[in-house]
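User: Hello, can you help with two protein structures?

Assistant: Certainly.
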Amino acid sequence: MTTLQRDPYDTPGAHDGPVTLERRDGPYGEVVLRRRGTGAEAVHEIIANGCFLMDTSDGRSERLLVDAALAALPADRAEPAVLIGGLGVGFSLARAAEEPRWGRITVVEREPAVIGWHRAGPLGGISARALADPRAEIVEDDLLGHVRTAPVRYDALCLDIDNGPDWTVTEGNDSLYSPAGLAACRERLTPGGVLAVWSARPSARFERALRNAGFEGVRTEEITVARGVPDVVHLGQRAA
């Protein structure tokens, strides 16, 4: 059941206080959509099981996730197919739809609440045009399950379901970054395909894991943030 309520830490009359727009018990725990500010300055946040996931304040690193994957593919690869793991606030999907070179755009999102906030909620302001793109589809599924069983391959896997390989949202997500999970990602890619993984901080351990899993050209691209360590995108490529 959906519960609409004000966040208990919101101060009445304070424009920058967080307001809970919707709180749902999903298949993997509680997910919350909050808003800070009002009007054009409003920022929406997604919280999962009390853990901040992402907000609409920036989006540069989520866009880099898609751009870096495309840039790593051979320039002559026609209409490459991309799998975006995690719909989030929609920046990565919107970026992919802006690029005419992409062919099939598949988004895998396991939380029905997040999908609903895009299709009939405030996050549609970011994703509505992309969702109307005939190349795009949303699949409600667990990402690792989809990677293991999907009947098709992708030229790029752009994954953003955690705060990073070392900072997972749910315990079960650890298996995605394990040797078996990375092997499944590699097998889901076409030859020369690219795996791109978003992270809130660099991880030398994950770079080693990518190399050990057989990925080539492993590297990390950074986005400087206002405070703290940079957001990054970890990249690896399946052998051609």
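That covers the first. Now for the second protein you mentioned:
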Amino acid sequence: MPWTLLKAVFGWLVLFEARNKVLLAPSAVRLRRIEDAEVRRLSAGLPAPPSALVATVIATHRRPDALRAAVRSALDQTVRDHVVIVVDDGAGLPELPDDPRLFAVSLARNTGVAGVVRNVGIRLTRSRYVAFLDDDNLWEPDHLERALGALESADAPVGVYTALRRVLPDGSEKDILSVPYDRRRAARESFLDTNAFVARRTRSLHFSRLRRTPEVLPREDWELIHRYARRHRVRHVPHPTVRYLVNPASFYTDW
């Protein structure tokens, strides 16, 4: 009864995350040190922080062909005031397109923590807005245009997420995930994904540094948006602009 009551009041995602912060706190301290060291090291190798209206962070690990396709879908956006930073989780980078808007870096060692990889990309860039794309997913050309249209409207939210077209490994469509934002509902259902999320750069825009194995819930995507929405208004754009691969071989999640 107490567990059922707590879930009804707070939502299971919130309760699980509270437990994670207690049990996994030591991993977050160590990973924050690694993240800080990588940002210092990689910043020294960049002539200037990549800067534009929006910066897209692509985390990658050992998917060269998929990465090239993801990078191309990011570079092909109709929004041109845009930089793309690829952050490799210590495996080495393949050859990528020669484009002045593209920057690629490798961590000195593998962390296996998607949130830390993405945080490095956020911290290496300077932009008003930040977007996220994983190396096995693709954007439609108007993804950023639609997101920024909402973010810069008269009644502007601070963060938006579009609908996901979920695709199976054989290329067939599984479904379209399009759920209006409700923070109470987000504490109970996993309908959020950062591949569709574009948000204003604020102090809240960083991923959890807890070491989340595949068994640890909630995923860092859901935790980020739920936490971000505590102080910032988030809105859903009900148009599918992301081709999300439901990938059983994912390094981070099979959702």
